[in-house]
């Protein structure tokens, strides 16, 4: 916790880290969840963990899902994000327990919505997702998973079975003190609109996407 100077010159405490704010029941089309809401005092973002069942502390099936308005809400086929979110929610319900951490502030791998749309426009002109970000003078991936680890620590989780194709998420959780007992693939069948994007994720961002080999006929 740091301190800031108040209006009368007195030092007042300023919260840092992640703080649990609310725990509310959330019935969904996938099943019954608890929406555990957090405030990230460092970035100011409001975050939520969707918890299903009695999760325990070890080997909890967990998805860290980066916010994607176009995919999650609008059903964009430019990416596989919306389908991954639905698949993760279904998976934890099928498991009987688990967590989907929905990470706000991660839009466009952390560059924000408008910048992501600008990058998408460049991709429509022929750049890949990495080249588009760099052409805009933006980082390829600006996401930080420290807040996700803080939420998992608060929920009492020590180790996870991580629903992800991205090895950087595993590395980040381990760095922040969450053991990853297993990485569980979350593979979504590609389509013509996202195959180039997915191939770029595999070839340039190290995502583990072996299922793309079976659809060599698809092109953008």
From TrEMBL:
Which of UniProt's keywords are assigned here? GTP-binding, Hydrolase, Metal-binding, Nucleotide-binding, Riboflavin biosynthesis, Zinc
Q: Name the enzyme group at the top EC level.
A: hydrolase
Please report which protein family the annotation says this sequence is part of.
Belongs to the GTP cyclohydrolase II family.
In which pathway does this enzyme or protein participate? Cofactor biosynthesis; riboflavin biosynthesis; 5-amino-6-(D-ribitylamino)uracil from GTP: step 1/4
Residues that coordinate or bind Zn(2+): 68, 79, 81
Reactions performed catalytically: GTP + 4 H2O = 2,5-diamino-6-hydroxy-4-(5-phosphoribosylamino)-pyrimidine + formate + 2 phosphate + 3 H(+)
Tell me its cofactors.
Zn(2+)
Short name of any one Pfam family annotated for the protein: GTP_cyclohydro2
Cofactor binding annotation = Binds 1 zinc ion per subunit.
The UniProt record lists the GTP cyclohydrolase II domain at 19-185
- Which CDD domains has this protein been placed in? GTP_cyclohydro2
E.C. number(s) listed in UniProt: 3.5.4.25
Q: Which gene encodes it?
A: ribA
Question: What is the role of this chain?
Answer: Catalyzes the conversion of GTP to 2,5-diamino-6-ribosylamino-4(3H)-pyrimidinone 5'-phosphate (DARP), formate and pyrophosphate.
Active site annotation, chain numbering: 141 (proton acceptor), 143 (nucleophile)
Give the matching HAMAP family: RibA
Residues that coordinate or bind GTP: 63-67, 84, 107-109, 129, 164, 169
- The protein here is known as GTP cyclohydrolase-2
PANTHER family cross-referenced by the UniProt entry: 3,4-DIHYDROXY-2-BUTANONE 4-PHOSPHATE SYNTHASE, GTP CYCLOHYDROLASE II-RELATED
Query: Which Gene Ontology molecular-function terms are recorded?
Result: GTP cyclohydrolase II activity
């Amino acid at each position: 916790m740091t301190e800031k100077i108040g209006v009368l010159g007195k030092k007042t405490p300023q919260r840092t880290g992640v703080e649990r704010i609310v725990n509310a029941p959330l019935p969904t089309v996938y099943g019954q969840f608890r929406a555990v809401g957090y405030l990230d005092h460092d970035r100011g973002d409001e975050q939520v963990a969707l918890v299903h069942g009695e999760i325990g502390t070890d080997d909890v099936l967990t998805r860290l899902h980066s916010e994607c308005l176009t995919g999650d809400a609008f059903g964009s086929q430019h990416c596989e994000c919306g389908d991954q979110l639905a698949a993760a929610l279904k998976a934890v319900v099928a498991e009987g327990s688990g967590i989907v951490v929905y990470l706000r502030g991660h839009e466009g791998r952390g560059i924000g919505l408008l910048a992501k749309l600008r990058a998408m426009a460049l991709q429509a002109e022929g750049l890949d997702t990495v080249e588009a970000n760099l052409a805009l003078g933006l980082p390829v991936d600006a996401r930080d998973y420290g807040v996700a680890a803080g939420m998992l620590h608060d929920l009492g989780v020590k180790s996870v079975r991580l629903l992800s194709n991205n090895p950087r998420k595993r590395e980040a959780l381990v760095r922040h003190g969450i053991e990853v007992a297993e990485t569980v693939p979350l593979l979504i069948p590609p389509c013509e609109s996202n195959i180039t994007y997915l191939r770029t994720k595999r070839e340039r961002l190290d995502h583990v996407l072996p299922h793309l080999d079976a659809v060599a006929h698809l092109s953008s």
